[in-house]
Specification:
Chain lengths: 150, 412
Protein backbone atom coordinates (compact mmCIF):
# COMPACT_ATOMS: atom_id res chain seq x y z
CA UNK A 1 0.00 0.00 0.00
CA UNK A 2 1.44 3.37 -1.03
CA UNK A 3 2.22 6.16 1.41
CA UNK A 4 -0.44 8.34 -0.22
CA UNK A 5 -3.10 5.69 0.22
CA UNK A 6 -2.29 4.99 3.87
CA UNK A 7 -2.39 8.77 4.45
CA UNK A 8 -5.85 8.84 2.86
CA UNK A 9 -7.26 5.91 4.80
CA UNK A 10 -6.03 6.75 8.29
CA UNK A 11 -7.18 4.80 11.33
CA UNK A 12 -9.42 7.67 12.44
CA UNK A 13 -11.22 7.59 9.09
CA UNK A 14 -11.60 3.82 9.07
CA UNK A 15 -12.93 3.93 12.61
CA UNK A 16 -15.53 6.61 11.87
CA UNK A 17 -16.51 4.78 8.68
CA UNK A 18 -17.02 1.52 10.52
CA UNK A 19 -18.61 2.98 13.65
CA UNK A 20 -20.21 6.25 12.60
CA UNK A 21 -21.10 8.67 15.43
CA UNK A 22 -24.44 10.49 15.57
CA UNK A 23 -25.85 8.59 12.66
CA UNK A 24 -29.56 8.54 11.86
CA UNK A 25 -32.38 11.06 11.89
CA UNK A 26 -32.50 13.44 14.83
CA UNK A 27 -36.11 13.38 16.10
CA UNK A 28 -35.75 16.78 17.75
CA UNK A 29 -34.15 18.49 14.76
CA UNK A 30 -35.42 21.91 13.75
CA UNK A 31 -33.13 22.23 10.72
CA UNK A 32 -32.18 19.78 8.02
CA UNK A 33 -30.26 20.01 4.77
CA UNK A 34 -29.51 17.39 2.21
CA UNK A 35 -26.25 17.25 0.29
CA UNK A 36 -25.54 15.15 -2.70
CA UNK A 37 -22.73 14.60 -5.08
CA UNK A 38 -24.35 13.97 -8.48
CA UNK A 39 -21.22 12.66 -10.15
CA UNK A 40 -20.77 9.78 -7.71
CA UNK A 41 -24.13 9.42 -5.99
CA UNK A 42 -22.93 10.12 -2.45
CA UNK A 43 -25.64 11.50 -0.20
CA UNK A 44 -25.62 13.10 3.20
CA UNK A 45 -28.43 14.64 5.23
CA UNK A 46 -27.50 16.70 8.26
CA UNK A 47 -30.01 17.29 11.07
CA UNK A 48 -29.57 20.13 13.53
CA UNK A 49 -31.33 21.22 16.66
CA UNK A 50 -30.41 24.86 16.89
CA UNK A 51 -30.84 26.53 20.24
CA UNK A 52 -30.59 30.17 19.26
CA UNK A 53 -27.26 30.40 17.51
CA UNK A 54 -25.93 27.24 19.14
CA UNK A 55 -25.90 23.73 17.67
CA UNK A 56 -27.52 21.92 20.57
CA UNK A 57 -27.59 18.57 18.77
CA UNK A 58 -26.58 17.20 15.41
CA UNK A 59 -26.78 13.98 13.42
CA UNK A 60 -26.21 12.81 9.87
CA UNK A 61 -27.57 10.14 7.59
CA UNK A 62 -26.68 9.02 4.11
CA UNK A 63 -24.51 6.75 2.05
CA UNK A 64 -21.20 7.07 0.36
CA UNK A 65 -17.53 6.20 0.42
CA UNK A 66 -15.46 5.83 3.56
CA UNK A 67 -14.12 9.36 3.20
CA UNK A 68 -17.54 11.02 2.98
CA UNK A 69 -19.08 8.97 5.77
CA UNK A 70 -16.14 9.33 8.15
CA UNK A 71 -15.93 13.05 7.49
CA UNK A 72 -19.63 13.56 8.28
CA UNK A 73 -19.33 11.42 11.40
CA UNK A 74 -16.29 13.28 12.73
CA UNK A 75 -17.92 16.59 11.86
CA UNK A 76 -20.92 15.86 14.06
CA UNK A 77 -18.63 15.29 17.05
CA UNK A 78 -16.87 18.59 16.40
CA UNK A 79 -19.91 20.77 15.79
CA UNK A 80 -22.04 19.75 18.75
CA UNK A 81 -22.29 22.71 21.12
CA UNK A 82 -20.70 25.20 18.73
CA UNK A 83 -22.09 28.53 17.55
CA UNK A 84 -22.60 29.10 13.83
CA UNK A 85 -19.51 31.35 13.74
CA UNK A 86 -17.40 28.67 15.42
CA UNK A 87 -18.76 26.08 12.99
CA UNK A 88 -17.85 28.27 10.03
CA UNK A 89 -14.33 28.67 11.43
CA UNK A 90 -13.98 24.89 11.87
CA UNK A 91 -15.09 24.33 8.30
CA UNK A 92 -12.55 26.89 7.10
CA UNK A 93 -9.80 24.93 8.87
CA UNK A 94 -11.08 21.62 7.57
CA UNK A 95 -11.28 22.91 4.02
CA UNK A 96 -7.72 24.22 4.25
CA UNK A 97 -6.54 20.81 5.47
CA UNK A 98 -8.22 18.75 2.74
CA UNK A 99 -7.18 21.07 -0.06
CA UNK A 100 -3.59 21.79 1.00
CA UNK A 101 -2.64 18.83 3.21
CA UNK A 102 -1.42 21.29 5.84
CA UNK A 103 -1.98 19.79 9.27
CA UNK A 104 -3.58 21.96 11.95
CA UNK A 105 -1.50 23.49 14.74
CA UNK A 106 -3.63 22.05 17.51
CA UNK A 107 -3.90 18.31 17.84
CA UNK A 108 -7.20 17.26 16.30
CA UNK A 109 -8.75 14.26 14.55
CA UNK A 110 -9.34 16.64 11.66
CA UNK A 111 -5.67 16.11 10.81
CA UNK A 112 -6.58 12.61 9.59
CA UNK A 113 -8.09 14.25 6.53
CA UNK A 114 -4.84 15.87 5.40
CA UNK A 115 -4.19 12.89 3.10
CA UNK A 116 -7.24 13.77 1.01
CA UNK A 117 -5.39 16.59 -0.76
CA UNK A 118 -3.32 14.03 -2.71
CA UNK A 119 -6.59 12.70 -4.23
CA UNK A 120 -8.28 15.78 -5.74
CA UNK A 121 -11.35 13.80 -6.84
CA UNK A 122 -12.05 12.91 -3.21
CA UNK A 123 -12.06 16.46 -1.78
CA UNK A 124 -15.76 16.79 -2.50
CA UNK A 125 -16.39 13.52 -0.66
CA UNK A 126 -14.71 14.95 2.42
CA UNK A 127 -16.61 18.24 2.31
CA UNK A 128 -20.09 16.87 1.48
CA UNK A 129 -21.34 16.62 5.08
CA UNK A 130 -19.85 19.99 5.97
CA UNK A 131 -21.64 21.69 3.08
CA UNK A 132 -24.92 20.17 4.23
CA UNK A 133 -24.32 21.28 7.84
CA UNK A 134 -23.58 24.85 6.83
CA UNK A 135 -26.62 24.92 4.58
CA UNK A 136 -28.77 23.57 7.41
CA UNK A 137 -27.50 26.34 9.71
CA UNK A 138 -28.48 28.91 7.07
CA UNK A 139 -31.87 27.24 6.74
CA UNK A 140 -31.40 26.07 3.15
CA UNK A 141 -32.72 22.64 2.19
CA UNK A 142 -30.49 21.18 -0.53
CA UNK A 143 -26.96 21.54 -1.75
CA UNK A 144 -24.89 19.72 -4.27
CA UNK A 145 -21.13 19.64 -4.34
CA UNK A 146 -21.23 20.48 -8.04
CA UNK A 147 -22.91 23.82 -7.64
CA UNK A 148 -21.32 24.76 -4.36
CA UNK A 149 -18.35 27.07 -4.60
CA UNK A 150 -15.72 26.02 -2.09
CA UNK B 1 -10.66 -21.32 -25.24
CA UNK B 2 -9.87 -17.60 -25.00
CA UNK B 3 -9.89 -15.83 -28.34
CA UNK B 4 -6.60 -14.03 -28.72
CA UNK B 5 -5.11 -12.08 -31.55
CA UNK B 6 -1.43 -12.08 -32.25
CA UNK B 7 -0.01 -8.86 -30.93
CA UNK B 8 -3.37 -7.13 -30.50
CA UNK B 9 -2.02 -5.33 -27.43
CA UNK B 10 0.74 -3.88 -29.59
CA UNK B 11 -1.91 -2.09 -31.65
CA UNK B 12 -2.75 0.10 -28.63
CA UNK B 13 0.13 2.40 -27.63
CA UNK B 14 -1.53 3.60 -24.41
CA UNK B 15 -1.47 0.13 -22.83
CA UNK B 16 2.30 0.10 -22.62
CA UNK B 17 2.76 2.19 -19.54
CA UNK B 18 2.93 1.85 -15.80
CA UNK B 19 0.46 3.48 -13.42
CA UNK B 20 1.72 3.96 -9.87
CA UNK B 21 4.60 1.65 -10.68
CA UNK B 22 2.38 -1.19 -11.94
CA UNK B 23 1.51 -2.22 -15.51
CA UNK B 24 -1.71 -0.48 -16.53
CA UNK B 25 -4.73 -2.79 -16.38
CA UNK B 26 -7.41 -0.87 -18.25
CA UNK B 27 -10.86 -2.18 -17.31
CA UNK B 28 -12.95 0.94 -17.94
CA UNK B 29 -13.83 0.16 -21.53
CA UNK B 30 -17.56 0.64 -21.11
CA UNK B 31 -16.79 4.30 -20.35
CA UNK B 32 -14.38 4.69 -23.23
CA UNK B 33 -12.23 2.23 -25.15
CA UNK B 34 -8.61 2.78 -26.07
CA UNK B 35 -7.62 3.61 -29.64
CA UNK B 36 -5.45 1.50 -31.92
CA UNK B 37 -2.49 3.21 -33.55
CA UNK B 38 -4.12 2.98 -37.00
CA UNK B 39 -6.96 5.20 -35.76
CA UNK B 40 -4.64 7.71 -34.11
CA UNK B 41 -2.50 7.76 -37.27
CA UNK B 42 -5.54 8.23 -39.50
CA UNK B 43 -6.44 11.33 -37.53
CA UNK B 44 -2.94 12.85 -37.80
CA UNK B 45 -2.74 11.86 -41.44
CA UNK B 46 -5.99 13.64 -42.18
CA UNK B 47 -4.83 16.84 -40.50
CA UNK B 48 -1.38 16.64 -42.06
CA UNK B 49 -2.52 15.86 -45.61
CA UNK B 50 -6.21 16.26 -46.38
CA UNK B 51 -7.76 18.83 -44.07
CA UNK B 52 -10.21 21.28 -45.70
CA UNK B 53 -13.88 22.01 -45.18
CA UNK B 54 -16.15 19.49 -46.85
CA UNK B 55 -18.93 19.77 -49.44
CA UNK B 56 -18.54 23.44 -50.33
CA UNK B 57 -15.03 23.75 -51.71
CA UNK B 58 -14.01 23.43 -55.32
CA UNK B 59 -10.33 22.89 -54.60
CA UNK B 60 -8.36 19.68 -54.38
CA UNK B 61 -8.08 19.40 -50.61
CA UNK B 62 -11.78 20.06 -50.14
CA UNK B 63 -12.57 17.32 -52.61
CA UNK B 64 -10.21 14.95 -50.83
CA UNK B 65 -11.72 15.77 -47.44
CA UNK B 66 -15.25 15.36 -48.82
CA UNK B 67 -14.38 11.98 -50.32
CA UNK B 68 -12.81 10.87 -47.03
CA UNK B 69 -15.85 12.06 -45.04
CA UNK B 70 -18.41 10.46 -47.33
CA UNK B 71 -16.22 7.37 -47.53
CA UNK B 72 -16.38 7.15 -43.75
CA UNK B 73 -20.18 7.43 -43.92
CA UNK B 74 -20.27 4.54 -46.37
CA UNK B 75 -18.04 2.47 -44.06
CA UNK B 76 -20.26 3.16 -41.06
CA UNK B 77 -23.32 2.28 -43.15
CA UNK B 78 -21.74 -1.05 -44.08
CA UNK B 79 -20.65 -1.58 -40.47
CA UNK B 80 -24.30 -1.58 -39.31
CA UNK B 81 -25.62 -2.96 -42.61
CA UNK B 82 -27.75 0.09 -43.44
CA UNK B 83 -29.45 -0.08 -46.84
CA UNK B 84 -28.13 3.33 -47.83
CA UNK B 85 -25.37 5.75 -46.69
CA UNK B 86 -27.98 8.51 -46.45
CA UNK B 87 -29.38 6.65 -43.45
CA UNK B 88 -26.23 7.47 -41.44
CA UNK B 89 -26.13 10.88 -39.76
CA UNK B 90 -22.92 11.85 -38.03
CA UNK B 91 -23.41 13.25 -34.52
CA UNK B 92 -21.30 13.89 -31.43
CA UNK B 93 -22.22 10.48 -30.08
CA UNK B 94 -25.03 8.35 -28.69
CA UNK B 95 -26.42 11.14 -26.54
CA UNK B 96 -26.74 13.59 -29.41
CA UNK B 97 -28.16 10.86 -31.67
CA UNK B 98 -30.95 10.12 -29.20
CA UNK B 99 -31.60 13.80 -28.59
CA UNK B 100 -31.91 14.23 -32.35
CA UNK B 101 -34.57 11.53 -32.62
CA UNK B 102 -36.43 12.70 -29.54
CA UNK B 103 -36.43 16.36 -30.59
CA UNK B 104 -36.99 15.97 -34.34
CA UNK B 105 -39.09 12.83 -34.70
CA UNK B 106 -40.69 13.46 -31.31
CA UNK B 107 -41.79 17.04 -32.01
CA UNK B 108 -43.41 15.98 -35.30
CA UNK B 109 -45.05 12.79 -34.04
CA UNK B 110 -45.86 13.04 -30.34
CA UNK B 111 -48.84 14.72 -28.74
CA UNK B 112 -50.61 14.82 -25.38
CA UNK B 113 -51.84 11.37 -24.39
CA UNK B 114 -49.20 9.50 -26.39
CA UNK B 115 -46.84 7.18 -24.54
CA UNK B 116 -43.06 6.85 -24.86
CA UNK B 117 -42.05 3.36 -23.74
CA UNK B 118 -38.59 2.96 -22.17
CA UNK B 119 -37.04 0.33 -19.92
CA UNK B 120 -35.85 0.56 -16.34
CA UNK B 121 -32.29 -0.20 -17.41
CA UNK B 122 -31.80 2.85 -19.61
CA UNK B 123 -28.73 5.06 -19.31
CA UNK B 124 -29.65 8.69 -18.59
CA UNK B 125 -28.86 9.39 -22.26
CA UNK B 126 -31.85 7.30 -23.33
CA UNK B 127 -34.09 8.64 -20.61
CA UNK B 128 -33.61 12.39 -20.11
CA UNK B 129 -34.06 13.31 -23.83
CA UNK B 130 -37.44 11.54 -23.68
CA UNK B 131 -38.38 13.33 -20.47
CA UNK B 132 -37.65 16.63 -22.24
CA UNK B 133 -39.79 15.86 -25.29
CA UNK B 134 -42.53 14.46 -23.05
CA UNK B 135 -42.65 17.76 -21.19
CA UNK B 136 -42.87 19.68 -24.47
CA UNK B 137 -45.53 17.53 -26.11
CA UNK B 138 -47.56 16.29 -23.16
CA UNK B 139 -46.66 12.67 -23.95
CA UNK B 140 -46.15 10.31 -21.00
CA UNK B 141 -43.32 7.93 -20.12
CA UNK B 142 -43.84 4.26 -19.34
CA UNK B 143 -41.25 1.66 -18.37
CA UNK B 144 -40.68 -2.03 -19.03
CA UNK B 145 -39.60 -3.39 -15.62
CA UNK B 146 -36.44 -5.36 -14.96
CA UNK B 147 -36.63 -8.76 -13.29
CA UNK B 148 -34.89 -10.00 -10.18
CA UNK B 149 -33.19 -8.27 -7.24
CA UNK B 150 -29.96 -8.11 -9.28
CA UNK B 151 -31.58 -7.79 -12.75
CA UNK B 152 -30.56 -11.39 -13.38
CA UNK B 153 -33.80 -11.84 -15.33
CA UNK B 154 -33.22 -8.94 -17.71
CA UNK B 155 -36.32 -7.20 -19.01
CA UNK B 156 -39.75 -8.49 -18.05
CA UNK B 157 -40.76 -9.69 -21.52
CA UNK B 158 -43.97 -11.23 -20.21
CA UNK B 159 -45.10 -7.76 -19.14
CA UNK B 160 -44.24 -6.23 -22.51
CA UNK B 161 -47.38 -7.28 -24.37
CA UNK B 162 -49.54 -5.56 -21.78
CA UNK B 163 -47.46 -2.38 -22.07
CA UNK B 164 -47.67 -2.10 -25.87
CA UNK B 165 -51.02 -0.32 -25.86
CA UNK B 166 -52.32 1.85 -28.73
CA UNK B 167 -51.06 5.05 -27.01
CA UNK B 168 -47.44 3.88 -27.34
CA UNK B 169 -45.85 5.67 -30.29
CA UNK B 170 -42.17 4.94 -29.67
CA UNK B 171 -40.20 2.28 -27.80
CA UNK B 172 -36.60 3.20 -26.93
CA UNK B 173 -34.31 0.66 -25.28
CA UNK B 174 -30.70 -0.24 -24.86
CA UNK B 175 -29.05 -3.10 -26.72
CA UNK B 176 -26.63 -3.82 -23.85
CA UNK B 177 -26.93 -2.45 -20.32
CA UNK B 178 -23.86 -0.50 -19.23
CA UNK B 179 -24.51 -1.29 -15.58
CA UNK B 180 -25.57 -4.94 -15.61
CA UNK B 181 -24.11 -6.47 -18.79
CA UNK B 182 -27.56 -7.64 -19.91
CA UNK B 183 -27.92 -8.19 -23.66
CA UNK B 184 -31.49 -7.44 -24.68
CA UNK B 185 -33.26 -9.48 -27.38
CA UNK B 186 -33.44 -6.46 -29.67
CA UNK B 187 -34.80 -8.22 -32.76
CA UNK B 188 -37.66 -9.70 -30.72
CA UNK B 189 -38.41 -6.32 -29.10
CA UNK B 190 -38.44 -4.60 -32.50
CA UNK B 191 -40.69 -7.26 -34.03
CA UNK B 192 -43.22 -6.86 -31.22
CA UNK B 193 -43.15 -3.07 -31.49
CA UNK B 194 -43.46 -3.17 -35.26
CA UNK B 195 -46.52 -5.40 -35.09
CA UNK B 196 -48.19 -2.55 -33.18
CA UNK B 197 -46.88 0.16 -35.53
CA UNK B 198 -44.53 1.49 -32.84
CA UNK B 199 -41.29 3.22 -33.83
CA UNK B 200 -38.14 1.70 -32.25
CA UNK B 201 -34.99 3.47 -31.07
CA UNK B 202 -31.98 1.43 -29.92
CA UNK B 203 -29.14 2.72 -27.77
CA UNK B 204 -26.22 0.71 -29.15
CA UNK B 205 -23.46 2.54 -27.21
CA UNK B 206 -22.39 -0.63 -25.40
CA UNK B 207 -22.89 -3.10 -28.25
CA UNK B 208 -21.60 -1.39 -31.37
CA UNK B 209 -17.91 -2.16 -30.91
CA UNK B 210 -18.41 -5.46 -29.15
CA UNK B 211 -20.65 -7.63 -31.33
CA UNK B 212 -22.19 -7.71 -34.80
CA UNK B 213 -24.90 -5.04 -35.08
CA UNK B 214 -27.06 -5.35 -38.19
CA UNK B 215 -29.90 -2.83 -38.31
CA UNK B 216 -31.82 -4.78 -40.95
CA UNK B 217 -31.56 -8.08 -39.11
CA UNK B 218 -32.60 -6.32 -35.89
CA UNK B 219 -35.40 -4.49 -37.67
CA UNK B 220 -35.09 -1.19 -35.78
CA UNK B 221 -36.13 2.26 -36.99
CA UNK B 222 -33.29 4.16 -35.29
CA UNK B 223 -29.98 3.10 -33.77
CA UNK B 224 -27.63 5.42 -31.88
CA UNK B 225 -23.97 4.92 -31.07
CA UNK B 226 -20.67 6.58 -30.20
CA UNK B 227 -17.29 6.19 -31.85
CA UNK B 228 -15.17 6.40 -28.72
CA UNK B 229 -16.49 3.18 -27.20
CA UNK B 230 -15.58 1.24 -30.36
CA UNK B 231 -11.91 2.15 -30.83
CA UNK B 232 -12.80 5.42 -32.55
CA UNK B 233 -12.04 8.88 -31.21
CA UNK B 234 -14.20 11.07 -28.99
CA UNK B 235 -16.60 13.66 -30.37
CA UNK B 236 -18.03 11.52 -33.16
CA UNK B 237 -20.89 9.06 -33.31
CA UNK B 238 -23.79 8.29 -35.55
CA UNK B 239 -27.50 7.88 -35.81
CA UNK B 240 -28.90 5.27 -38.15
CA UNK B 241 -32.44 6.07 -39.21
CA UNK B 242 -34.74 4.39 -41.69
CA UNK B 243 -34.81 6.58 -44.81
CA UNK B 244 -38.58 6.84 -44.92
CA UNK B 245 -38.70 8.20 -41.37
CA UNK B 246 -35.74 10.55 -41.81
CA UNK B 247 -37.23 12.10 -44.95
CA UNK B 248 -40.39 13.01 -43.03
CA UNK B 249 -38.57 14.55 -40.06
CA UNK B 250 -37.95 18.28 -39.50
CA UNK B 251 -34.35 19.52 -39.02
CA UNK B 252 -32.71 19.14 -35.61
CA UNK B 253 -30.57 22.27 -35.84
CA UNK B 254 -30.49 25.02 -38.46
CA UNK B 255 -27.43 26.41 -40.19
CA UNK B 256 -25.17 25.97 -43.15
CA UNK B 257 -24.93 22.71 -45.04
CA UNK B 258 -28.47 21.55 -44.31
CA UNK B 259 -30.44 23.85 -46.62
CA UNK B 260 -31.32 23.71 -50.29
CA UNK B 261 -32.49 27.31 -50.43
CA UNK B 262 -32.76 30.18 -47.96
CA UNK B 263 -34.87 33.34 -48.26
CA UNK B 264 -35.01 36.08 -45.66
CA UNK B 265 -38.09 34.56 -44.06
CA UNK B 266 -38.07 30.92 -45.11
CA UNK B 267 -35.78 28.08 -45.98
CA UNK B 268 -36.01 24.63 -47.53
CA UNK B 269 -34.02 21.62 -46.37
CA UNK B 270 -31.80 19.12 -48.04
CA UNK B 271 -32.68 15.46 -47.63
CA UNK B 272 -30.94 13.22 -45.09
CA UNK B 273 -28.16 13.09 -44.02
CA UNK B 274 -27.35 16.77 -44.72
CA UNK B 275 -30.67 17.93 -43.27
CA UNK B 276 -29.47 16.77 -39.85
CA UNK B 277 -25.87 17.96 -40.08
CA UNK B 278 -26.07 21.74 -39.75
CA UNK B 279 -22.77 23.57 -39.67
CA UNK B 280 -19.28 22.25 -40.40
CA UNK B 281 -19.43 18.58 -39.51
CA UNK B 282 -16.79 16.76 -37.47
CA UNK B 283 -15.25 15.25 -40.60
CA UNK B 284 -11.76 14.48 -39.28
CA UNK B 285 -13.11 12.38 -36.42
CA UNK B 286 -15.58 10.75 -38.80
CA UNK B 287 -12.70 9.65 -41.02
CA UNK B 288 -10.97 8.13 -37.98
CA UNK B 289 -14.26 6.38 -37.10
CA UNK B 290 -14.29 4.76 -40.53
CA UNK B 291 -10.81 3.41 -39.81
CA UNK B 292 -12.01 2.08 -36.44
CA UNK B 293 -14.79 0.18 -38.28
CA UNK B 294 -12.17 -1.39 -40.55
CA UNK B 295 -9.99 -2.28 -37.58
CA UNK B 296 -12.81 -4.04 -35.71
CA UNK B 297 -13.94 -5.89 -38.82
CA UNK B 298 -10.33 -6.99 -39.29
CA UNK B 299 -10.47 -8.63 -35.87
CA UNK B 300 -13.99 -9.94 -36.53
CA UNK B 301 -16.92 -8.82 -34.43
CA UNK B 302 -18.07 -12.39 -33.76
CA UNK B 303 -14.65 -13.08 -32.29
CA UNK B 304 -14.70 -9.85 -30.26
CA UNK B 305 -18.08 -10.85 -28.80
CA UNK B 306 -16.79 -14.31 -27.89
CA UNK B 307 -13.62 -12.87 -26.33
CA UNK B 308 -15.53 -10.28 -24.26
CA UNK B 309 -18.04 -12.87 -23.10
CA UNK B 310 -15.32 -15.31 -22.06
CA UNK B 311 -13.51 -12.65 -20.05
CA UNK B 312 -16.73 -11.50 -18.39
CA UNK B 313 -17.67 -15.10 -17.53
CA UNK B 314 -14.24 -15.75 -16.07
CA UNK B 315 -14.40 -12.53 -14.08
CA UNK B 316 -17.90 -13.37 -12.83
CA UNK B 317 -16.78 -16.84 -11.66
CA UNK B 318 -13.72 -15.52 -9.85
CA UNK B 319 -15.46 -12.50 -8.33
CA UNK B 320 -18.27 -14.72 -7.04
CA UNK B 321 -15.73 -16.28 -4.63
CA UNK B 322 -15.17 -12.94 -2.83
CA UNK B 323 -16.91 -12.59 0.54
CA UNK B 324 -20.04 -10.44 0.59
CA UNK B 325 -20.03 -9.63 -3.10
CA UNK B 326 -23.27 -8.81 -4.91
CA UNK B 327 -23.05 -9.31 -8.67
CA UNK B 328 -25.53 -7.67 -11.02
CA UNK B 329 -26.94 -8.95 -14.27
CA UNK B 330 -27.11 -12.34 -15.96
CA UNK B 331 -25.86 -15.33 -13.98
CA UNK B 332 -23.41 -17.94 -15.18
CA UNK B 333 -24.60 -19.80 -18.24
CA UNK B 334 -26.61 -16.82 -19.41
CA UNK B 335 -25.59 -14.53 -22.21
CA UNK B 336 -23.62 -11.54 -20.92
CA UNK B 337 -21.74 -8.67 -22.50
CA UNK B 338 -18.10 -7.93 -21.66
CA UNK B 339 -18.59 -6.33 -18.28
CA UNK B 340 -19.21 -7.23 -14.66
CA UNK B 341 -20.82 -4.91 -12.15
CA UNK B 342 -20.70 -5.63 -8.43
CA UNK B 343 -20.94 -4.18 -4.95
CA UNK B 344 -19.84 -5.05 -1.43
CA UNK B 345 -21.99 -4.51 1.64
CA UNK B 346 -19.25 -2.82 3.68
CA UNK B 347 -16.92 -1.22 1.16
CA UNK B 348 -18.12 1.59 -1.05
CA UNK B 349 -17.42 1.51 -4.80
CA UNK B 350 -15.29 4.65 -4.67
CA UNK B 351 -13.01 3.17 -2.06
CA UNK B 352 -12.72 0.02 -4.19
CA UNK B 353 -11.80 2.09 -7.24
CA UNK B 354 -9.23 4.16 -5.34
CA UNK B 355 -7.55 0.98 -4.05
CA UNK B 356 -7.59 -0.58 -7.53
CA UNK B 357 -5.88 2.48 -8.96
CA UNK B 358 -3.01 1.89 -6.53
CA UNK B 359 -2.33 -1.35 -8.42
CA UNK B 360 -2.60 0.30 -11.82
CA UNK B 361 -6.14 -0.98 -12.41
CA UNK B 362 -8.66 1.39 -14.01
CA UNK B 363 -12.22 0.60 -12.85
CA UNK B 364 -15.38 2.66 -12.63
CA UNK B 365 -17.44 3.14 -9.50
CA UNK B 366 -20.74 4.92 -9.09
CA UNK B 367 -24.24 4.94 -10.51
CA UNK B 368 -23.09 4.59 -14.15
CA UNK B 369 -25.73 7.14 -15.24
CA UNK B 370 -28.42 4.71 -14.13
CA UNK B 371 -29.72 6.48 -11.02
CA UNK B 372 -33.34 5.26 -11.22
CA UNK B 373 -32.22 1.64 -11.64
CA UNK B 374 -29.69 1.88 -8.79
CA UNK B 375 -32.41 3.33 -6.56
CA UNK B 376 -34.76 0.49 -7.46
CA UNK B 377 -32.05 -2.05 -6.60
CA UNK B 378 -31.30 -0.30 -3.30
CA UNK B 379 -27.78 0.57 -4.40
CA UNK B 380 -25.98 3.89 -4.42
CA UNK B 381 -23.63 2.52 -7.02
CA UNK B 382 -21.51 -0.39 -8.11
CA UNK B 383 -17.97 -1.09 -9.18
CA UNK B 384 -17.65 -2.04 -12.83
CA UNK B 385 -14.92 -3.86 -14.72
CA UNK B 386 -15.44 -3.80 -18.48
CA UNK B 387 -13.36 -5.61 -21.06
CA UNK B 388 -12.21 -5.17 -24.60
CA UNK B 389 -10.12 -6.85 -27.27
CA UNK B 390 -6.80 -6.24 -25.52
CA UNK B 391 -7.75 -7.50 -22.05
CA UNK B 392 -6.48 -10.83 -20.81
CA UNK B 393 -7.31 -13.54 -18.28
CA UNK B 394 -4.17 -12.56 -16.33
CA UNK B 395 -5.58 -9.07 -15.83
CA UNK B 396 -8.64 -10.59 -14.18
CA UNK B 397 -6.33 -12.35 -11.72
CA UNK B 398 -4.66 -9.01 -10.95
CA UNK B 399 -8.11 -7.50 -10.33
CA UNK B 400 -9.29 -10.30 -8.04
CA UNK B 401 -6.07 -10.22 -6.00
CA UNK B 402 -6.42 -6.47 -5.61
CA UNK B 403 -10.05 -6.75 -4.48
CA UNK B 404 -9.06 -9.34 -1.86
CA UNK B 405 -6.52 -6.89 -0.46
CA UNK B 406 -9.09 -4.09 -0.38
CA UNK B 407 -11.65 -6.24 1.43
CA UNK B 408 -9.03 -7.29 3.95
CA UNK B 409 -8.01 -3.69 4.56
CA UNK B 410 -11.57 -2.65 5.33
CA UNK B 411 -12.07 -5.74 7.46
CA UNK B 412 -14.98 -6.84 5.30
Amino acid sequence: MSADLSELYQQVILDHNKRPRNRGKLPTANRVAHGDNPSCGDQCSVYLRMDGDKIADISFDGSGCAISQASASLMTTLLKGKSSAEAAELYKNFHEIVTTGKEPEEISDIAAFAGVHAFPARIKCATLGWHAAIEAMKGGPNITTESHID
Amino acid sequence: MMTTWTNVRHDFPILHQQVKGKPLVYLDNAATAQKPKVVIDALSHFYERDNANVHRGLHTLSNRATDAYEGARAKVARFVNAADSAEIIFTRGTTESINLVAASWGSANLKAGDVILLTEMEHHSNLVPWQLIAQRTGAKLRYVPVLGPNVEGGLDLAALDGLLTPEVKVFAFTHVSNSTGTINPVAELCAKARSHGIVTVIDAAQSIGHMPVDVRAIGCDFLAFSGHKMAGVTGIGALYGRRELLDAMPPYQGGGGMISQVEFFTARWKPSPERFEAGTPNFADAVALGVACDYLDGLGRDKIAAHDHQLAKLAYEKLATLPGIRLLGPGLGQERSGLVSFSFADVHAHDVVTFADEDGIALRGGHHCNQPLMRKLGLTGTTRASFYVYNTAEEIDVLVANLRKTLKFFGA
